[in-house]
Amino acid sequence: MNTITPNQRREQLAAVADVVAAAYGEPPKSMHPLASSMSLRNAAALIGQRLLHENENPQHAFARGLASGDFGALLAQGAAPATVATFDRAAEHRAFCSIVPVHSFRPEPIRALEGDTGPLEPLQELQRISATVLQPNAAGPDSVALCTYGRVVAVSRQLVINGDLSFALSSLKNVAATAARQEAAMLAKTMEASANLSDGQPMFDAKFMNVHAAALDASALGAAIALLRTQPTASGQPAGLSARYLVVAPGLEFAARSLVHESGMQIDVLALAGLPGGRWYLLTAPDVCPVIGLLQLNGSRSPVRVEQLGYMFEADALPIRITADLGCTWLRRAGVVRGGV
């Protein structure tokens, strides 16, 4: 009988993560040498061997490993990259939004700095430069909060025995795509809400030069482009912003793409389900002038999380929870023009 040395045991355990990835259908480019010859069931049993009590039947190793937190963590971690990537691909709307970090799930005031001062002063040698003290008192949303949405996908014992988790990964990807659609719907609702900013004034009004009540055509697009250039900053200067994104209701997508193509301008067209028929928005680049923000918990890289849960003994399944922390808000009036009648 061959005895497994401690070093061999460590190498086997090091291969488990690659075994899980391969079972999901997402094997790493550089597989561990032992992973190709190890089944998913054997991987669970390998983890369970460390959890067996003294004199416990070795045949219980698979059951121990299957219900362990270590194996559950590996399943969640193995599914996370592909699941998050699906959310990113489905969330096309994030291209024209800015990420706004928040510290908690409680309502927080978010006030956008205007990011503009008066013209630069001509300087003489040894002349002291006057300072502009930044204050967070520009018009912005009064209070916004993240909301968490989630769903659980349970991996049955039989799927682990079969060694094929592709169906489970497909289910998690579908949940991630659904989360992206929910965020898009929330974004459309926020964009259409007639809310006031913290100064008590409406988000859109002709006096702010961010409304053009006309159907989308070449003339309307040209007028909106001019409005972005001439919208006043806090110091009264023309903003000089260039058009970067044309966001339209689904029924306008083909016409909008044709219009932009014919114009030859570098404007990306995005259709947003949830916008009413005939509605369109022209926005500048979010890194130049943040206009609408998506909330994200401070320190997190994605709003989507894939997490393990305790084993469901009543269903004989290992649950994986996918959650999405979603929230959005307008940040400022400059940098956007709302069109449509």
Short descriptors:
elongated, 8 helices, 341 residues, alpha/beta, single chain, five-stranded mixed beta sheet, 33% helix
What does this structure look like?
The mean pLDDT is 90. Helices cover 33% and strands 17% of the residues. It is α/β, with parallel strands linked by helices and 341 residues long.
Brief overview:
This protein has 341 residues and is of the alpha/beta class. The chain is 33% helix and 17% strand. It has 8 helices and 11 strands.
Write the layout of secondary structure elements.
Blueprint: H1 6-23, H2 40-49, H3 61-66, H4 69-90, E1 98-102, E2 147-156, H5 157-162, H6 166-192, E3 211-212, H7 218-230, E4 245-248, H8 253-263, E5 268-271, E6 280-283, E7 292-297, E8 304-308, E9 317-326, E10 328-330, E11 336-339
Parallel strand pairs: 1-7, 3-11, 4-5
Antiparallel strand pairs: 2-9, 4-6, 6-11, 7-10, 8-9
Helix pairs in contact: 1-2, 1-4, 4-6
